[in-house]
């Protein structure tokens, strides 16, 4: 059984990425799993080349520091030729309507005067990532579930039209912390590319900054400590973050703390302690570029070997190559 997932270097890794994704890749992953840095997806909105390269490196270090199996990781662009080829085949399997319907595309494109075509085809590249590696399960947060549905549809369509090549992947949504919200605006999900980072806790933020961001989190003036995501989203978000760090249920935690201030102190402490070892290990890895390069190169070799036969079959059956 192969699980596959990825993170895009469009910013520094934030708490939602960590609790909702990276931590699970580390604790539940096996050597057969595949976790990668999707730097090609990092080019779908205006980007700075140097920053893309350095964030790719930083995110690779964070994954390894968090305990993701080194044999499972690679960098997407190390397979740019293979993925470019399969993306084209899948673009010719996907309709314009299907791509244009994607919620993330509509959200990211809204109000932009100039939208990169790659933003529209982003989920097709994601389907290529998933199908090329033969993933059975794709663990992602709610925000990416629709993209995995598209990958399923394209796998079925390709197999039905040209012949059985691809595994039809299953999306898996994590039970808790599926959506960590922005601390300053709980109507939005926490995002690494947020314009205002006051409500975004980054995994590499120093402890004092984490504490400050948590203390300034928006709650409400109802003064009622209960877990009510609909009516008290800010409070519910803090309870969910604490739940993800302690393994307790959010409603149970709401009963056990005395005030909003006490809750914020508990959240700040839990998050700081959760992130402390990862921050230290990331710094150590970034100080050892040769080791990071070695892991990256070995990961690319494994990812290419795992996928070669599927790409060859897809090209042959669709009438090219
Ligand atoms: P990305 O970089 O947006 O997010 C990486 C992972 O973090 C999860 N996540 C969150 N979880 C909880 N709360 C949040 N606030 C939060 N924000 C992000 C995401 O659900 C995701 O699991 N397109 C993908 C990367 C990708 C990919 C793939 C994933 C490229 N190819 C193939 C799966 C399979 C992305 O940009 O994730």
Automatic annotation (TrEMBL):
GO biological process: tryptophanyl-tRNA aminoacylation
Gene source species: Solihabitans fulvus
Keywords: Aminoacyl-tRNA synthetase, ATP-binding, Ligase, Nucleotide-binding, Protein biosynthesis
UniProt-listed SUPFAM superfamilies: Nucleotidylyl transferase
GO cellular component: cytosol
Protein family according to the UniProt entry: Belongs to the class-I aminoacyl-tRNA synthetase family.
Protein's name according to its UniProt entry: Tryptophan--tRNA ligase
Any GO molecular function: tryptophan-tRNA ligase activity
Gene field: trpS
EC number: 6.1.1.2
Gene3D superfamilies recorded: HUPs, Tyrosyl-Transfer RNA Synthetase
